[in-house]
Amino acid sequence: MKKRWALPGVCHSGPSRGISFERKSTPGFQLRSISPNSQIGNGVSQVNSHSYNKFKMYIPALNTKRNKVLLGFRYSWEEFTFDKPSDLSYLPHQNLHDRHLKTLGMNMIAVHSLSETHYLAFRGAASASGLFEGWLPEESEYYTFNASLLLGKRLSDSREMGFGLYASKKFNRFSIYPLFLYNHTFNERWGVELLLPKKASLRRNFSSSTLALLTSELTGNRYYLPEIQLAEGSTNPITLQLLQWETSLSLQQAILPMLWLSVQAGFRKSFSFDIRQPHAQRGNILIDSHLPAGMFASVSLFIAPPRKKN
Length: 310
Hints:
The chain is globular. The protein has one helix and 16 strands. It has a 16-stranded antiparallel β-sheet that branches. It is mainly beta. It has one domain (about 20-305): Porin, CATH 2.40.160. This is DUF6268 family outer membrane beta-barrel protein. InterPro entries: DUF6268.
């Protein structure tokens, strides 16, 4: 009998994304900022819109029975548009208005099958985020590096689990935490997909071309801004750190054999919207901002590569 090597994935799971474009929007909200520095002070401003746009693509670099390698490229940009920008009195908000906060990154996904039941999955990425011209900024403060390694076990065609580690490096600070993977398709209609502590989804399949996902996910970005005026007469390099928890319902629909549309709506709870000095110790915040909880919506188009039959 022909040997069947273990690879990630379970039956009836959602389509993978080879090339995708997403636009996410948040309606207006009031941004409150507090600084322990009396020269910077406190401020309250109205944000009319907050948008996030992302383009991603993957190309296969190696495809054998036991080994798969994908190389990826990512370009995203985020913008905050304030109400009546010419009337803004708080300098930090003035200097965030309509800024093109972008991220350029490369990443790699590699999978090696160890046996009929076990596999190793590796992900690595390097990205530059912030305000910069061109493609590759020179300053190291722009860059973030991260990698994960996971040992997975296919318990059946409908169930898999795995354990691993995730590590990241930025501003000469290194962090590491454990990962737990569990994917289980209960039947042709229902399934769960977990990658803890980052993401958890409940899946409902309506057909082979239509599915819905109820997802709870931790998201965030970190941007380096080399010259920002926070107070009169002083310009400083800063980092803007955003961290939030999003719970959403999305509907994915195939509109052509390989082209899918996804629409998503959900609720966002912000944990961090902070301005810090780039190399300061954790907790040393220049400006602590409160981003109120609220709704968001997104739409994305993506090309899904053909799926091999189990």
